[in-house]
Design brief:
The protein has a domain at 48-83. The longest helix is centred in the middle third of the chain and has 46 residues, at 41-86. It is an all-alpha fold. The relative contact order is 0.03. The protein has helices spanning 2-18, 23-37, 41-86. The N and C termini lie far apart (74 Å). The chain is rod-shaped and about 95 Å long.
Length: 109
């Protein structure tokens, strides 16, 4: 029991150390980015932006595919319901009070 409490306290304290980014962290990341990429930083930024746009287009395409499949399945369901609605009612209705007749011969004979 105590090991579980200790582990949860350890996990909570570790998460609280990370926290959201502040202006100091963002500034440090920008300085590191300038030092690493130097003159290529605008090109890296453009490529990163293009990759984000392509990713969003891909996600939107997947969403469109899912929507089209859903519409197709709904259309199929409606077509089946329409076909069954066009059928005439059954001519013979079973009588639940009538007793079942015994069969004398089988079809296999």
């Amino acid at each position: 029991m105590t090991s579980t409490i200790f582990e949860s306290t350890l996990n909570t304290s570790f998460i609280s150390l990370i926290g959201p980014f502040g202006w100091i962290e963002v500034t440090a990341l920008l300085i590191i980015g300038v030092l690493v990429f130097g003159k290529r930083l605008p090109e890296v930024g453009r490529n990163f932006g293009k990759s984000i746009v392509e990713f969003k287009k891909g996600i939107k395409g997947i969403g469109d595919d899912i929507d089209s499949e859903e519409k197709k399945s709904n259309a199929d369901t409606e077509a089946v319901e329409q076909k069954t609605a066009d059928l005439p009612p059954a001519k013979v209705t079973p009588d639940p009070t009538k007793e079942v007749e015994e069969v004398d011969s089988h079809l296999d004979d």
